[in-house]
Amino acid sequence: MKPALTEHQNAMPKQMDQVANVYARSLFELCADDGGTEKAQAMAGQLEQVCELVRGDASFAEFLKTPIIDQGRREAALKQIFQGRIDDLLLRFMLVLNVKGRLGHLSHINDAFDHQLQEACGRVEVDVYTPEGQSLSPEISESLKQRIKSTIGKEAILHTYQDDSMIGGIKLRIGDELIDGSIQTQLRRLHQEMIDSGSARIREQYTDFMDESA
Fold it and tell me: Model-level pTM?
């Protein structure tokens, strides 16, 4: 499973997001022509394994994206490492990324590919955040899935995380949208409402005073 974006992390830059979507769409269409959804699901698993390797080895990640290394040398290395170990389609795709200088975008392409796969399968991945030490019960998890399905019409795949900055409540991230039901946010909203309400009363009292003085 890919690491989720927390509310403190920024989404990928818009330009990079567009690049990732273009390449992910191309790979998805190639999978569709070569076996449909089953092929795409198998491809997603292998692509994630490659990205896990990239995330776990800083020197390999640098090797993929540095412009210092000649494309031919990098192509030979990719073939030596992955040939016979991953699907030929994925290897050819990575070789194209190498020629285009886009191997450094592989993790973002992986995210975009997974998103397109979930869309095609009628699913949506949801990151669920709870306070540290608190986990979702099976009943609450099922309730969340049902509410999400009734709202957006898609099967929810829940990924649960604990956030030590939370004191209560729950937060959901669906794509780029954060649904914040944490106690901190509720308290902030209540505080702001009290400020707004107090300001309104002061303005009302001032207006009444001026009217009486006229």
Answer: 0.64
Closest-CA residue to 183 (of 194, 173, 172, 169): 169
Question: Looking at residue 205, what is its pLDDT?
Answer: 58
Domain that holds residue 175: 123-181
For residue 202, give the amino acid letter. Answer: I
Beta strand 155-163 pairing with 177-180: unpaired
In this prediction, residue 6 carries a pLDDT of 39
Answer whether 10's CB lies under 8 Å from 179's CB: no
**Residues 66, 18 share a domain:** yes
Q: Which residue has the tokens 């001032």?
A: 206
Q: How far is CA 19 from CA 9, 13, 109, 112, in A?
A: 20, 10, 8, 10
At residue 68, what are phi and psi to the nearest 5 degrees? -70, -35
Please write the tens of the pLDDT for every residue from 32-79: 898 888 999 999 999 999 999 999 999 999 999 999 999 999 999 999
User: What is the residue type of 61?
Assistant: A
In a domain, 4, yes or no: no
Dump pLDDT digits (tens) for 90-112: 999 999 999 999 999 999 999 99
Q: Is residue 128 part of a domain?
A: yes
User: Do 126 and 148 meet the contact criterion of CB atoms below 8 Å apart?
Assistant: yes
Tell me the HSE value of 189 on the side-chain side, using a 13 A CA sphere: 7
199 is written with which tokens? 């300001």
